[in-house]
Design goal:
Bound molecules: flavin-adenine dinucleotide
Number of helices: 11
Number of strands: 13
CATH architecture of the largest domain: 2-Layer Sandwich
Shape: globular
Order of helices and strands: EHEHEEEHHHHHHEEEEEEEEHHH
Radius of gyration: 19 Å
CATH class of the largest domain: Alpha Beta
Structural class: alpha+beta
Strand content: 25-35%
Distance between the termini: 57 Å
Largest sheet: 5 strands, antiparallel
Strand order of the largest sheet: 4-5-10-6-7
Number of domains: 3
């Protein structure tokens, strides 16, 4: 099916919100277009109005405010991967952005598009989940802020209404006590999309893990933290035996959440191995030789 679109590029947030209010149901927001253009080319979207938000300066920023980092949805993966603010305050997100696609995709693709497209394989989502990120959605006359995990109701499905724009992503900066890991398993090609990706954070207090956060992408119906694994590790002195136990539990928790599927046979050991690798990194426990 060939799609027919008309195109408009508002120059301010106010103008974009007005267009979406008037034309919401028949309008489609486009940012970098790296996901959307493929859907259009494949005929998955019907005719309508394409609202290109690329030229809205209010949506492109990386800001530090006190202990918070605030991002506009138009920040590209390349900008995230080269930002000093992100490197210092959210290195897990820097690594996730760096792992995206190819230089061309990182230059065009935005964090907002990655979040809203809601692909289970999206690389920034597990990183934002362990950062406990909040997202702000706006439509004319209304603004709402919610945890990023509340956005998702299924693969490629969010609660975002047709009249709404994602306008901000916020999270607390990680201070020096945090260690982080981001690991991605993908088919080995430059443009590989993640088959599984893991984001992990740990904050130590002396020898004990004061707080642990872990999210496994591409493996659960909606993005989430692995609560049982986090509880197992929190307050404990991490050892190789404990990490191995945690990795096994992560694989079990993944199956519990997603049910047994054709991919489970491959994903269960893969999740186990990758979680173990991520935890060894955050707890600074190398492999025995
Ligand atoms: C070859 C290739 C390789 C890729 N590799 C990776 C990879 O390794 N990792 C990865 O995570 N992704 C990858 N992607 C997917 C894609 O590049 C990312 O998801 C990218 O971040 C999407 O951003 P965009 O700005 O291009 O989104 P667009 O395509 O412009 O939009 C995507 C969706 O988000 C909506 N949208 C965008 N911005 C907003 C907003 N502010 N408010 C409301 N709705 C909005 C659009 O309406 C659309 O539904 C790849 C894509 C390609 C083509």
């Amino acid at each position: 099916m060939k799609s027919e679109f008309t195109y408009i590029s508002p120059r301010s947030l106010e103008e974009a919100l007005k267009i979406l209010e008037d034309r919401g149901e028949g309008a489609q927001v486009i940012a970098g277009g790296t996901d959307l253009m493929i859907q259009i080319r494949e005929g998955k979207l019907g005719a309508g109005l394409l609202v290109d938000i690329t030229y809205i300066p209010e949506l492109r920023f990386i800001r530090e405010e006190g202990n918070q980092i605030k991002l506009g949805p138009l920040v590209t993966h390349a900008e995230l991967a080269s930002s000093g603010v992100i490197k210092n305050g959210a290195s897990v997100l820097e690594r996730a952005a760096h792992s995206v696609g190819s230089p061309q995709i990182r230059n065009m693709g935005t964090i907002g598009g990655n979040i809203v497209n809601a692909s289970p394989a999206a690389d920034t989502i597990p990183a934002l989940v362990v950062l406990d990120a909040q997202v702000t959605l706006m439509r004319k006359g209304r603004k709402r802020t919610l945890p990023i995990t509340d956005l998702y109701i299924g693969p490629y499905k969010t609660i975002i209404e047709p009249h709404e724009l994602l306008v901000e992503i916020t999270f607390t900066k990680l201070d020096d006590g945090w260690r982080s890991s981001f690991i991605k398993l993908a088919r080995r090609r430059a443009l590989a999309i993640a088959r599984i990706n893991i984001a992990a954070l740990a904050k130590m207090e002396g020898a004990k893990a004061k707080e642990v956060r872990i999210s496994v992408g591409s493996s659960t119906p909606t993005p989430c933290r692995m609560g049982e694994v986090e509880t197992l590790l929190t307050g404990e002195v991490p050892s190789l035996a404990l990490i191995e136990e945690a990795a096994l539990r992560a694989a079990q928790e993944m199956v519990k959440r997603s049910g047994v599927r054709p991919s489970t046979e491959y994903k269960r050991p893969a999740v186990q191995g990758l979680v173990e690798k991520a935890l060894r990194e955050v707890f600074d426990l190398g492999y025995e030789t």
